[in-house]
Amino acid sequence: MKIKPLADRVVIKMVEAEETTKGGIILTSAAKEKPQVATVVAVGPGGLVDGKEVEMIVKVGDKVLTSKYSGTEVKVDGEECTIVRQSDILAIVE
Q1: How many CB atoms lie within 10 A of CB 74?
Q2: What is the pLDDT of residues 30-43, one digit of tens each?
Q3: How far apart are CA 25 and CA 92, in angstroms?
Q4: Are 33 and 17 in contact (CB under 8 A)?
Q5: pTM here?
Q6: Helix (H) or strand (E) holding 43
Q7: Strand segments (E) across 8-78
């Protein structure tokens, strides 16, 4: 199955959280922070959203920073993805 986002929505896949700290301490799943870095999987067409013209800036393959608890989590073909509005993306990581 393939997801095609509508309007200003973007489908992202979170980058895996770190298993260990910089000091070498192994973290349990409860101690891991929710990752904020994600890879863009699909991008909507943009267009008229809430009466304003929205141009899509992000593109498939971009690494982005998102708000910590933004978006809607979905599972497609066993893979977890998140659907967010482009405005929930804070920055593109270069």
Answers
A1: 12
A2: 544 556 899 999 99
A3: 29
A4: yes
A5: 0.79
A6: strand 37-43
A7: 9-14, 37-43, 47-49, 52-54, 63-66, 72-76
